[in-house]
Amino acid sequence: MEDQVEGSKGKNAKKKPFKLTRQLIRLALNDGWTQKEIAGKCRVQQSIVSAWGKGAKCATEAQLIPLLEIYGHKLRRNTFRVYWALNSITQAKTFFRVEGKVVFAEVVFELKKSSGKATQKIPVMKLIVHHQGADSFRSVVQHRLELNSPIEFSVSSAEDAVWSSDVSDQRSSAELIDWLDGYAHSLSEKHPHIGLTLPFLLRQALMNHGFPVGGVVEYPALW
After folding, report:
1. Please, which residues have CB within 8 angstroms of residue 223's CB and are 6 or more apart in sequence?
2. Cα torsion at 25, 28, 29, 34 (round to 10°)?
3. Where are the beta strands (DSSP E) in the chain?
4. Which phi and psi angles does 196 have, rounded to 5°?
5. Alpha carbon of 99 to those of 5, 130, 133, 192: distances in Å?
6. For residue range 157-194, what is the model confidence (pLDDT) as tens digits?
7. Which of 81, 144, 134, 131 lies closest to 104, judged by CA?
8. Does pTM surpass 0.70?
């Protein structure tokens, strides 16, 4: 029963109108494809492809899979973030360009207290997940740089630059969940609240973006 529900969720996600239909069709046409060839590849009538190219209709992701496999990376070229890492021993810098829509982003704060009350929230860690097409995700764990010398001068965008990043290999959604569950468990001893909440927050984010998540008890509505 659960497998059927998960399968239907994945299918429903691919039935949603693909907002970049026109741009994708234009990429194929500009690359030498004819409307007839696109129609054959996507298994639709040529008149449908014409409507897609004019922006009169949107295809579904399922219909466009053959084209997305070829041109999807070009559609995503403007959806990226730049990260960097600082080697604490050699001070060598490495810069990363990670493509894909961000589907999960959480910041871990340290609470500074005075007289038993939290007076300041200082961000110390960030956890970000990029969706990179199909069932592929890439996570980024960022830790705030600890500078020994006092900061006397700064720049306007310094907040984006004070994070050293660890970029993962691509993972499937199931592998991503397994990894985050283990990572959250490793944080539980020192930060029990963070360890308990991160697994829920990731599953919630994935489901809100239409990705199937295993091990979730379903209570469907009766319409």
Report:
1. none
2. -100
3. 80-86, 93-99, 101-114, 117-131, 137-144, 163-167
4. -80, -35
5. 30, 7, 10, 32
6. 567 788 999 999 999 999 999 999 999 999 988 888 88
7. 131
8. no
